[in-house]
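Weekly puzzle thread! Below is a chain. First person to post its structure in token form gets bragging rights.
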Amino acid sequence: MDLFRYMQFCSHFLLIMITFLKDVHTTRKTCSGFRRNPAFDNLALNTSTFKIQVWNERHSPMCIQRCFKHGADCAGVLVNEHLQLCWFLKCFLTERFLQRGLLTVSSGWKYYLEENKCRPDWVPYNGHCYLYEDSVRDTWFGAKTRCNEFGGYLVEIEDKDENTWLISTFPVDEQDPVHDGHGKAVLIGASSEVETGPYTWSHSGQPVVYQAWYPMEPSSHPSEYCVIFRADGLWNNLPCQIQRQFVCESD
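Winning reply:
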């Protein structure tokens, strides 16, 4: 091998090694932000609602690294090294997922979540953070102010997946009963100037496109300008002065 070709070979080899070491360093750095939760070992999601993407990947560190590089909407991964599958998740797995039949026993799966994805008591979903305020009840306007003080806003539900995630994650169905005729429910960010709409989101000012009204809702009862999210995921309009627990969202 002449000197020129030898130098080319050495340069190419050195470049490969530098790239490899950078990848190792990045993988270690990104993996340090993730934590394995063995409580969800050998469990697989049986719905695609909360999955972002599926990769053919056998090694957990590389699956985690892909999630980290994917962006803010990847909150964790399910990895099965035997099946060589890596699932990106929009959200954290919770015990309520088990209770609601969203997880199925399936050997080989391991769950990793990204710590510090949101502030304490807030939980991630699809790149946003959410707070279920169950320690206090307030009016719609009071809840809106509280969410602003927390650095967020009353939740704005954009699609069916987000609506499903909310009932799958927050224990609205476990609230103490409120005897106001509206059942167990939380305030959300939709409101209107008239009882029957149109409704808009208070933070973005955008019209409410996705809607999940309870049958015969929104009703035309006087002064029912604000909206609640029921334990079954359906919506009602109600007077804004009624006090309820609420969900905040932040970008």
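Puzzle host: Confirmed. Bonus trivia for everyone else. Helices lie at 3-31, 60-70, 95-99, 140-149, 160-169.
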